[in-house]
Amino acid sequence: MGFVRAHGLEIAYDRVGTGPPLVFAHGGAEDGRVWRPQLAALADEFTVVAWDEPGAGRSSDVPAGFGLADYASCLAALIESLELGPVYVAGLSWGGTLVLELYRHRPDLVTALILIDTYAGWKGSLSEDEVRARVGGLREMLAAPPASFATLPGLFAGAPPKEFVPLLEELAAAVRPKSLQTALLVMAETDQRDLLPQIAVPVLLIWGEQDLRSPLTVARQFEEAIPGAELVVIPACGHVSNLEQPTAVNAAVRAFCRAHPRARS
Fold first, then answer.
1. What is the pLDDT of residue 85?
2. What is the Cα–Cα distance from 113 to 199, expressed in whole angstroms?
3. Which of 29, 114, 224, 227 is paired with 164 by a 20 to 30 Å CA distance?
4. CA distance 156 to 209
5. Contacts by 105-108 with C-beta closer than 8 Å and gap 24+?
6. Do residues 125 and 221 touch, judged by C-beta distance below 8 A?
7. What's the whole-model pTM score?
8. What is the largest CA-CA distance in the chain?
9. pLDDT tens-digit readout, 156-212
10. CA–CA separation, 8 vs 165, rounded Å?
C-alpha cells in the first residue's frame, strides 16, 4: 500500500506482484478493495495496481468542481509516479469511463484497455429516459442506508457470492455521499462515443451476461464502435463480474494481456 500526490490530493493504491504493469480502476460506491480477487490471482505474472480514486477509500476527498478529466489526470499521475510506463489498464463500470478518459488525454500511458461492464458515460450509452431516471434516483439512493449500495438490482445475477458479502458491506460503509454524487453526476453528463472509433490500442470487453446496469446492448455498441475490440461474455453473471465470476474474468484478462505484449516506453 502507498500514496502519491496529484492535484494536491493524496491518492492511495495497493501494489502486488512483478511483471508487466496492470492497473485497475474501480466503479462507483467502491474503492480498490473490490479488486482483491484480481490482485491475488494475477500477481504471479503482473505488477498489479489498484487505486482508490479521489473521494474513495484512503484517498483525499474530491474538491469542488472536479471533472472527468481531473480523475483521469490523477490516474495518469499515479502511473507516472510509480514509473510503470505504458500499462494495461482495466476499469469496471464508472472506472471504465474513467480509463477511457485517461486514454483520450494520455494514450502514451496505455498499452491496452480492458473495459468491464462499463459505459461511454451514461449519456453516451443509455437512453435519455434512463439517464434521467438514474439522476432522479440519486438523491434517494444517497439518503438510503449504506448497505443499499451493495444491493442495487443487476449488480449480481443472483445473491452476492457469500465469500464477498463482508467485503461488500465494508465498501458500502466507506462510501462518501458527496464524492459519490460528484462521480455519478459526472457520469450522467459524459458522452464518449466520439472517442471509441479513435482507439488505436487493443481493447478487451468483459461483460456479465445478466448485467442489468450496463446491459449487453451496451457491450455490442462498444464492440461495433471500437476497431478490433474483443468481447468476452461471462454466463450467469451480473454487473460486478470481477467478484461474481472472478476465475472467468481473471482468465480472460490473463489471456488478453499475453496475446498483446506490452509496448516498451
1. 85
2. 9
3. 114
4. 10
5. 105/69, 105/72, 105/73, 105/76, 106/72, 106/76, 107/200, 107/201
6. yes
7. 0.96
8. 47
9. 999 999 999 999 999 988 999 899 999 999 999 999 999 999 999 999 999 999 999
10. 34
Task: Convert the chain into a string of H (helix), E (strand) and C (coil).
Answer: CEEEEECCEEEEEEEECCCCEEEEECCCCCCHHHHHHHHHHHCCCCEEEEEECCCCCCCCCCCCCCCHHHHHHHHHHHHHHCCCCCEEEEEECHHHHHHHHHHHHCHHHEEEEEEECCCCCHHHHCCHHHHHHHHHCHHHHHHCCHHHHHCCCCCCCCCCCHHHHHHHHHHHHCCCHHHHHHHHHHHHHCCCCCCHHHCCCCEEEEEECCCCCCCHHHHHHHHHHCCCCEEEEECCCCCCHHHHCHHHHHHHHHHHHHHCCCCCC
Burial 219-230 (b: 16+ CB within 10 A, else e): bebbbebbeebb
What's the grid cell of residue 1?
500500500
Q: Which residue has the cell 505484449?
A: 261
Is residue 265 predicted with pLDDT exceeding 90? no
**Grid cell at residue 170:** 465494508
Neighbours of 171 (CB within 10 A): 23
Q: How far is residue 22's CA from residue 87's CA, in Å, rounded to a whole number?
A: 6
Task: Assess contact for 119 and 93: CB atoms under 8 A.
Answer: yes
pLDDT in the model for residue 139: 76
Cell 460506491 belongs to residue: 29
Q: Do residues 232 and 207 lie in contact, with contact meaning Cβ atoms separated by under 8 Å? A: yes
Please give the single-letter amino acid code of residue 57: G
Distance CA 119, CA 200 (A): 18
